């Protein structure tokens, strides 16, 4: 078996909390609590989930902006989770990031040209000034901005254009994979479509892999190959787009899908409304972490934590319901499409 | 008589580099008990319209002209003292970001009770008892305990419920909701939309909802106004708007939104885009505001602004081509 481009094994990311006035037992935020996935070359894996589920923390750990508490991050066959920052430097070229807010992720005092040239200089990607200029022009063409924009400042651009600059900057390092952390969430509908299409085109053209972190399920369905659904620091379900969206095998996935407003007043609505809020990742519930809000929870869910296990080829879910015979599994009776 | 009539509203802002025509001649009305959605992208003037109705635009640099008639009275002409009697009583508002619109140093029971003490002359005890009632109404568990807590102790969804409780405390006739679910997660958004639908039936208030999300529009609205670059470009009953959009901008917006379950094929697909960006509102736009991005643009669009015309019962659009479409159909 050939190695995946990116492999994450049993990743844990725990953040210590202050001890408080009287000391006492040190407590932790269990932001990411043991998760594994792979991303192949040229593939998009999306991580979906609600605020606080740990999806952005996964992105940051994979980028080594955070040092994981435990577990492995393997990029192109090389473990990067325990690398020193010096050894890490050349690896950073291969994995780049596009952030959510195009207004705060560009330095307002650096011209576009210099912002894009920086990664090229850092990683020695251009041997001469002429080569660098050629590459800069090519980048602008790739992301659909006029070449004269190279001489302008970030504030001169609209949100969508800034996000194009953000993408160009990520591409300047010639990476194998780009982590897109809510990269289109802050954009208006019409501009969002432009950027989503741009990412798709670039993937095709350059064979890029994308780790697409998002809460927008409709956009994810549109642009992804595979999906991982996170809840309270764990992956509860992972599979191909069709498996997750058409035949979800975890009640949380089912609920998320049913909660998305449909832009059609005549569409049939079978909404599952969850009670309450997401529990705190400081003190996650025992047993299945979703049992406090799950419409199907039964005794076993309150005591025993379900493991991710394969429910069909390439499709894993962590739910006790899948141990039941099909006629007794509500997830199968309500199957969509 | 409609409950609210916005008539040729113009809200302009003076800025160092010219006048920003944020809202430029927008008219619509809201009937008693109905839900009207105003939809559009950033900078289209939808929030400024809402702020203008509440008279929350700072003057200067802002300036509203035209008429905003609420139960026949022009709000733009009312003295501030009279306006204060309407805000939070007959018309109330909920905002997008519940954390920044609640006072962090006041207990939420006190904040909910404030408008009732002010408008209905309740004393402190009565107001706090009523606040607990309102918290029950919006579905907050343990309302009595929660009313003694501060905003930071609540989750985002609960804070938005508190905002709604505050807005409904004095039984308003009109509730203006500016992106009420935009900052919330989908499962919480579903709870809040459900709550708003339920409360509308129970309380009977008309709702003016401002949103950029066509999914939300389809969920809650009876009628829709589509705004672009400070102008109304289309207005229609919700079913008609989604089934038969007449303005190329509305069609573009609808096409640009992916629908769940529509692209389950193996490969990622492409979305329909609207090329280009919204024009600057600081230069006077001759002709149609959408001309610079319109796929159907012609000579006439660049020279003359299209008038809003009825294309069907209750269905208005401002487009030269939508007119021709009607002639072709005839």
Give your account of this protein's structure.
The complex is a heterodimer of chains A (337) and B (330). Chain A is an alpha/beta fold. Chain A has a single domain, classed as P-loop containing nucleotide triphosphate hydrolases (Rossmann fold, 3-Layer(aba) Sandwich), CATH 3.40.50. In chain A, 31% of the residues lie in helices and 21% in strands. Chain A has 11 helices and 12 strands. Chain A has helices at 55-62, 85-92, 112-122, 129-143, 159-172, 189-206, 217-223, 241-246, 251-259, 299-303, 330-333, and strands spanning 6-16, 28-39, 44-48, 70-75, 78-79, 95-98, 177-181, 209-214, 226-231, 234-240, 309-312, 315-317. Chain A has an 8-stranded mixed beta sheet, with helices on both faces. Chain B has a domain at 99-169. Chain B is 36% helix and 23% strand. In chain B, the strands form 2 sheets. An 8-stranded mixed beta sheet of chain B has the order 6-7-8-3-9-10-12-11, with helices on both faces. In chain B, strands 2-1-4-5 form a 4-stranded antiparallel beta sheet. In chain B, β7, α8 (186-203) and β8 form a beta-alpha-beta unit. Chain B is globular and about 65 Å long. The relative contact order of chain B is 0.14. Chains A and B meet through α5, α6, α7, α8 and α9 of A and α7, α8, α9, α10 and α11 of B.
């Amino acid at each position: 078996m050939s190695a995946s481009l990116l492999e994450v094994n049993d990743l844990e990311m725990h953040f210590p909390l202050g001890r408080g006035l009287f000391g006492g037992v040190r407590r932790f935020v269990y932001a990411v609590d043991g998760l594994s996935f792979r991303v192949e070359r040229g593939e998009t894996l999306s991580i979906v989930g609600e605020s606080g589920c740990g999806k952005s923390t996964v992105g940051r750990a994979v980028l080594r902006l955070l040092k994981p508490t435990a577990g492995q991050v393997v990029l192109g066959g090389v473990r990067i989770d325990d690398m020193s920052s010096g050894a890490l430097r050349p690896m950073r070229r291969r994995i780049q990031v596009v952030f959510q807010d195009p207004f705060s992720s560009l330095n307002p005092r650096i011209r576009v040209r210099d912002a894009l040239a920086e990664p090229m200089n850092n990683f020695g990607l251009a041997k001469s000034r002429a080569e660098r200029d050629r590459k800069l022009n090519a980048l602008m063409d790739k992301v659909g901005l006029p070449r004269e924009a190279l001489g302008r400042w970030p504030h001169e651009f609209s949100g969508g254009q800034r996000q194009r600059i953000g993408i160009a900057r990520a591409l300047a390092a010639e990476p194998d994979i780009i982590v897109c952390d809510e990269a289109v969430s802050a954009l208006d509908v019409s501009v969002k479509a432009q950027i989503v299409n741009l990412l798709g085109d670039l993937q095709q053209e350059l064979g890029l892999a994308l780790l697409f972190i998002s809460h927008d399920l409709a956009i994810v369905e549109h642009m992804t190959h595979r999906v991982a659904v996170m809840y309270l620091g764990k992956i509860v379900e992972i599979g191909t787009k069709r498996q997750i969206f058409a035949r979800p095998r975890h009640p949380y996935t089912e609920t998320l899908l049913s909660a998305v407003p449909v832009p059609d007043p005549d569409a049939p609505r079978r909404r599952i409304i969850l009670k309450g809020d997401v529990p705190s990742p400081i003190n996650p519930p025992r047993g299945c972490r979703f049992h406090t809000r799950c419409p199907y929870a039964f005794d076993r869910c309150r005591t025993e934590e379900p493991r991710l296990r394969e429910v069909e080829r390439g499709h894993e879910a962590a739910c006790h319901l899948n141990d039941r015979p099909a006629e007794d599994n509500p997830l199968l009776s309500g199957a969509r499409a | 008589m409609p409950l609210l009539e916005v008539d040729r509203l113009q809200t302009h802002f003076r800025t160092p580099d010219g006048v920003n025509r944020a809202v430029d001649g927008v008219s619509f009305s809201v009937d008693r008990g109905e839900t009207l959605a105003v939809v559009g992208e950033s900078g289209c003037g939808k929030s400024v319209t809402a702020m203008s109705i509440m008279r929350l635009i700072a003057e200067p640099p802002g300036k509203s002209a035209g008429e905003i008639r609420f139960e026949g009275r022009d709000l733009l002409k009312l003295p501030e003292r009279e306006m204060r009697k309407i805000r939070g009583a007959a018309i109330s508002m909920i905002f997008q970001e519940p954390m920044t619109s609640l006072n962090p140093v006041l207990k939420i029971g006190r904040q909910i009770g404030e408008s009732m003490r002010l408008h209905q002359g309740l004393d402190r005890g009565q107001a706090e008892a009523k606040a607990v009632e309102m918290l029950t109404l919006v579905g907050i568990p343990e309302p009595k305990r929660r009313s003694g807590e501060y905003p930071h102790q609540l989750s985002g969804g609960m804070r938005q419920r508190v905002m709604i409780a505050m807005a409904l405390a004095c039984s308003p006739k009109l509730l203006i909701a500016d992106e009420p679910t935009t900052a919330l997660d989908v499962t919480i958004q579903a709870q809040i939309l459900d709550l708003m639908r339920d409360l509308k039936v129970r309380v009977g208030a008309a709702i003016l909802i401002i949103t950029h999300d066509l999914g939300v529009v389809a969920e809650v609205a009876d009628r829709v106004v589509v705004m672009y670059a400070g102008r109304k470009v289309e207005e229609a009953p919700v079913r008609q708007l989604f089934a038969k959009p007449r303005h190329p901008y509305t069609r573009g917006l609808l096409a640009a939104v992916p629908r769940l379950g529509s692209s389950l094929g193996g490969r990622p697909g492409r979305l329909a885009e609207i090329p280009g960006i919204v024009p600057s509102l600081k230069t006077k736009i001759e002709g149609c505001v959408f001309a610079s991005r319109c796929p159907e643009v012609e000579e006439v669009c660049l020279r003359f602004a299209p008038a809003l015309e009825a294309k069907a019962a209750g269905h208005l659009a401002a487009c030269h081509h939508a007119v021709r479409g009607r002639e072709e159909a005839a």
